Amino acid sequence: MTTTERIDHLDSRLGPDPKTTPTSHCVFLTGVTGFVGGTILSCLSKAHPNVRVKALIRQEGDAKELQSVYSNLTPIIGDLSTLSLLTSTAAEADFVIHMGGDNVPAVCAMIDGLASRTTTGSPLPRLISLTGPRSLIDLSNPITGNLRASSRPWSDVTDGHAILALPKDRMHAGADQTIIAHSVAKGVGTILVSPGQLWGRGKGHLKKESNAAFYYTTVKSRGRAFVIGDGTATWSWTSIGDLGDAVVFLMEQALMSGSERRGQVGVNQDGYYFVRTGDLSMMERAKAVSERLGLGVVESISVGAAKEIHPFGPIMWGCGERTRADKLAKLGWRPKDTDWRVLMEEEGGERA
Ligand SMILES: NC(=O)c1ccc[n+]([C@@H]2O[C@H](COP(=O)([O-])OP(=O)(O)OC[C@H]3O[C@@H](n4cnc5c(N)ncnc54)[C@H](OP(=O)(O)O)[C@@H]3O)[C@@H](O)[C@H]2O)c1
Questions:
Q1: Cross-strand bridge partners of residue 47
Q2: Mean of per-residue pLDDT scores for the chain
Q3: Which GO molecular function annotations are given, in alphabetical order (predicted)?
Q4: Is the model's pTM score more than 0.90?
Q5: Distance 20 CA to ligand 1 centre (A)
Q6: For 146-199, how does the pLDDT look when each residue is reduced to its tens digit (9 = 90+)?
Q7: pLDDT band at 22 (very low <50, low <70, confident <90, very high)
Q8: N or C of the chain: less Cβ packing under 10 Å?
Q9: Which domain holds residue 253?
């Protein structure tokens, strides 16, 4: 079901019709010049053209460019380090979506702004912050490129609390936990959205490609597709379009549905959400790009060789964790883009 169809189906019991309410709603976005943030701005503006969007943008030129495309957008020129600006802008917003990377002081400042309008009782969802599942990687195990025999998919329902208690020195983990602790302390409902690998062309106006473009370019310049070890390491993936759709869906549940429904959207300790469509091993990915470019047999490289290509190479290509987006499924959300090969080649895609 598309976002628009879903809006049509939103039961009137859930509250006011979202098509008639958005002008009264103000959503504050960060990271809109980026791959993820650009897509979410586009999906939000399509689904809710009347929602008032305030967007933190660093460069005047980017602000002008985006304003020429999105008439509902008011730029807030500034940086994530200007905490007082973040707090005052969030204080005037009904909802905040942060897509500017792990930045604890910035997110906490926006939580402080949202807290000025909280009511008593259980915190209602007011903030979505983008994170990622790399916190699931246990780097005390050596990187091999192989799927560990003991590994199993992580569910955001059954493992949600464990994910928010992972060692804080893991990627994203410390930031995730501090943001949730601050939300609890301030009585604000926060949702952490964690997509895996992102496939497809960005839907935003500025940045259209991300990590998949880097692997494609590297393979092309080496003349061989490669994996680390046997290449069975597997990440879960979703399309960038479905990520945008899922975030808008969560915002709709949080902002535009009735209080009963809002109460069902888990926040804070129950607020970690995966977005996932399928699982894909590094070898499947390498074979697909090799076939596309006619490069023959996939090469297995060492961790050291991957590090020479890029300092982050072993983590990008030699690890993997599978996730299950059980919370979104419970709320009734389903991904639409189910074929990663189509997304790989979308619009002549230079990605793999
Ligand atoms: N891309 C992926 O494959 C992927 C997968 C899983 C999770 N995520 C998560 O999604 C989030 C966004 O990732 P992305 O790929 O969209 O990153 P990106 O393309 O690099 O975009 C980052 C955005 O944040 C803004 N930004 C960064 N530092 C800022 C600062 N100090 N002040 C103001 N704005 C600042 C950038 O603005 P400028 O344009 O001015 O630099 C840009 O709009 C991250 O939290 C990431 O962990 C991404």
A1: none
A2: 92
A3: aldehyde dehydrogenase (NAD+) activity
A4: yes
A5: 32
A6: 999 889 999 999 999 999 999 999 999 999 999 999 999 999 999 999 999 999
A7: low
A8: N
A9: 3-208+237-278+321-336
What residue type is assigned to position 67 of the chain?
Q
In a domain, 297, yes or no: no
Closest approach atom of ligand 1 to CA 132 = 7
CA of 230 to the centre of ligand 1 (A): 31
> Distances from the Cα of 65 to the Cαs of 32, 59, 71, 77, 84, in angstroms?
12, 10, 11, 13, 26
Ligand 1, atom 39, lies closest to the CA of 33
CA 340 to the chain's CA centroid: 17
Ligand 1 centroid to 130 CA: how many Å? 9
104 lines ligand 1 (CB under 6 A): no
- The CATH number covering residue 13 comes to 3.40.50.720
- Cα 301 to Cα 116: distance, rounded to the nearest angstrom: 53
How far is ligand 1, taken at its centre, from the CA of residue 160, in Å?
24
- With cut-offs at 50, 70 and 90, classify the pLDDT of residue 18: very low
Residue 95 lies in a domain: yes
